[in-house]
């Protein structure tokens, strides 16, 4: 089942300005934000919520630091109105990060999430990162068992290559693939996007604003806290930032012409990629949330799209998305199933 068949099972909700918003659009409200402003955006709790922050745990779970408050918020009949997604696969053990997708871990992580969230079933269960030591068929095989047992409903992948997606989908239908897609991260368009569309898999685009870059450009660095991980990302390094600032300037020029903000323009570009794409812009501020919603009203012609894509080509962006230590779709291929021998 694709993410948009999943959409059809649920009513659209009116949010803030009256826009009808697909539930996945609201994934990325930060945890404390979604509860702090519940009186303003209460309908967002009735759509879809994903706890996107990894807590450092050694027992397999990935629920974020607000899990306790979240559990309380699901009481009183709210759970039936919420589509709940969470992830597994990235864990912090003995002072270092590890990626796991073996059957024992997959099951333990799911059981731990069900217990912490105090629910009987997770609607959408993502593999956060691909464990390249384990054939993807083995990981998905265990997830398939969890579906059959009623512990999860749908399976999602994150940062998976086209070949990995195909192999996974052959074991059990993949509902969504989450990937970074924005004006300065377009490499997924070559193989991954066409593969998802061929297989009828929904696309969840994270960091559609270039991790905040398309909000204020290079000035973004002035607001980084000391522990902001973006300080270490290659694209924000001095040797790359001056070059990338030119891209922001061009986007800003077009935004002024269109009567919107550069972040709204960047987000509208993702929206216009198709009905099978759901961007998930993150924010901690209600004013930014409002701006993101208004991006739905920005209309782009084919000429607008072509102009944006001409200035957002790969050679106009300097620096990779992450450093080499981070697991991405580019290094997500797994061993063949024939190589697997369960311990």
UniProtKB/TrEMBL annotation:
Residues 319-343 are annotated as: Disordered. One of its GO terms (cellular component) is cytoplasm. It comes from the Eukaryota. Residues 72-311 form the NADP-dependent oxidoreductase domain. InterPro entries: Aldo-Keto_reductase, NAD(P)_OxRdtase_dom_sf, NADP_OxRdtase_dom. Keywords: Membrane, NADP, Oxidoreductase, Transmembrane, Transmembrane helix. GO terms for molecular function: oxidoreductase activity. Pfam families: Aldo_ket_red. Residues 322-343 have a biased composition (Polar residues). The chain crosses the membrane at residues 16-35. PANTHER family: AFLATOXIN B1 ALDEHYDE REDUCTASE, ALDO-KETO REDUCTASE YAKC [NADP(+)]. This is NADP-dependent oxidoreductase domain-containing protein.
């Amino acid at each position: 089942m694709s993410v948009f068949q999943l959409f059809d099972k649920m009513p659209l909700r009116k949010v803030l300005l009256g826009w009808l918003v697909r539930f996945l659009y609201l994934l990325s409200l930060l945890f404390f934000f979604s509860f702090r402003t519940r009186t303003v955006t209460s309908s967002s709790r009735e759509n879809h919520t994903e706890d996107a922050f990894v807590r450092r745990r050694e027992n397999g779970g990935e629920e974020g630091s607000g899990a306790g408050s979240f559990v309380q918020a699901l009481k009183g009949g709210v759970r039936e109105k919420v589509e709940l997604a969470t992830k597994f696969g990235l864990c912090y053990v003995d002072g270092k990060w590890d990626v796991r997708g073996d059957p024992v871990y997959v099951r333990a992580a799911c059981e731990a999430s069900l217990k912490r969230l105090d629910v009987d079933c997770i609607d959408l269960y993502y593999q956060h990162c691909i464990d390249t030591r384990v054939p993807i068929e083995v990981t998905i095989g265990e997830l398939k068992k969890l579906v059959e047992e009623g512990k999860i409903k749908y399976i999602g992948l994150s940062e998976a290559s086209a070949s990995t997606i195909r192999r996974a989908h052959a074991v059990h239908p993949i509902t969504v693939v989450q990937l970074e897609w924005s004006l300065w991260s377009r490499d997924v368009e070559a193989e991954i996007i066409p593969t998802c569309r061929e297989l009828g898999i929904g696309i969840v685009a994270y960091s559609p604003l270039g991790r905040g870059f398309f909000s204020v450009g290079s000035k973004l660095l002035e607001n980084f806290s000391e522990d902001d991980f973006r300080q270490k990302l290659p694209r924000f390094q001095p040797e790359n930032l001056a070059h990338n600032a030119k891209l922001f300037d061009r986007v800003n020029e077009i935004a002024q012409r269109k009567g919107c903000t550069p972040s709204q323009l960047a987000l509208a570009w993702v929206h216009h990629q198709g009905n099978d794409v759901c961007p998930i812009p993150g924010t901690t501020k209600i004013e930014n949330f409002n701006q993101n919603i208004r991006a739905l009203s920005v209309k782009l012609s084919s000429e607008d799209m072509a102009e944006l894509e001409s200035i957002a080509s790969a050679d106009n962006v300097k620096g990779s998305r992450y450093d080499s230590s981070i697991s991405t779709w580019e290094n997500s291929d797994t061993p063949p199933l024939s190589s697997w021998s369960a311990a």
